[in-house]
Design brief:
64 residues; Helix Hairpins; 3 helices
Length: 64
């Protein structure tokens, strides 16, 4: 998801997205251990998007 799209969302929506990404990342790590992960880049992409979401949440909370 693009940064601009994330900035338009509310903090509550971003927190929901954070939970989704954390669960997704956990699933990818589990698949990696079992040997079922087809594209290891998915882990990197999930980590980056999670970091983007967390950064924008912190920015919005510091503004308020």
């Amino acid at each position: 998801m693009k940064k601009q799209n994330l900035r338009e969302k509310t903090v509550a929506d971003l927190q929901v997205r954070e939970k989704e990404l954390a669960e997704q990342l956990f699933g990818f790590r589990l698949q990696k251990v079992v040997g079922q992960l087809e594209k290891p880049a998915k882990i990197r992409n999930a980590k980056r998007e999670l970091a983007r979401v967390l950064t924008i949440i912190r920015e919005k909370q510091s503004e308020a």
